[in-house]
User: Fold this.
Amino acid sequence: MTDRGQSNMNLQVINKQACCTTGHYLVHSLKYYLQLNGHELVDESPELVIYCACGLTEDILSEHQKELQGISVPWKLWGCAGNFIKENVLTQETIDQELGGVIGFEKALESFNDQVDPYSESSVILIGEGCVNNCSYCNVKLAKSKLQSVPLESIYKRIEMYLAKGKSRITLVAEDVGSYGLDLGYDLSTLLLEIQSRFRCTLNIHAINPDMYLKHADTIKKLVDSGHITSIKMHIQSGSDRILKLMNRKYTLDELLKVWVSISGRIQSSSTIIYGFPTETVADLEKSVAAAHYFTHTVFIEYCPNPQTKAGKMEQLPETVVSSYGNALSEYIRTKSLQTWQVAKRKDMNKIVETNLYN
Assistant:
């Protein structure tokens, strides 16, 4: 659509992100950018559709491709799904040229704030994309092979902006907050300690990989003790050390919980756990259920094999077994009245939206 230059257009933004914090944030940033540049967002009769999609699983990618084939007007693909579908891809680097933005996307991101952010309880700062971990099941490394951290001073400016608006609750968002800064020569502890010394605010960490949490546990505990950190999301993915090893997770559950219990009772916490991973037994699943009790909120996500990953090449559990695990978890949650637990089955993955992302 480069021939349209800077003329305004009627655009439809379709949000098909799954449970991806970074993805949802960038979709809302995209809408803000488009409106800032005079484009009209419509639900009917668009000149161009911007289809926002993630590449979390092969199932989701397949669904995206089917829906894209049914769009009758020109379309662009926004989000990490573009790294797999590779057609009509729109990125942060190309959007200004493609849509003729007078106000560039990077500049728009600087002013994107809680007035347009739908998650109004907390002011959100995207501190980076990608991660340094190499989990055996994950498509993120394929979609975002390079860690890209936001420089410290840019984050400080965002915090100052929020504080000036009376917003003192800040959510730090990334695929793995724990990987922050490793591409820039510093790390998460540097960021957290600087925020503690410079600003009067509270922090939500959304989300951190457990092995990176362990590396920064002393700093995190210090900020929990001081009241600066009030909420953490951590993807533990399994309570079984055998499954964690197959996932290429670099810790044991005992190592994690010994440190985690020192703060878990004093903050809001949430986690995700994968069920139905290759070779998982009932005993493994029971360990995951036990581990989930260490968190305020837990989502059990059905494993979806990604053929390009190491786990995708493992022998998969029969669908009947995986289904029985999901049903057993749902029944356990029902009988125990665990209102802050949830089961996300594979067929519903492309419909999942984390409603408490920034709370």
Observations:
- The mean pLDDT is 87.
- Residues 2-106 form a domain with the Rossmann fold fold (CATH 3.40.50).
- The first helix runs from residue 21 to 36.
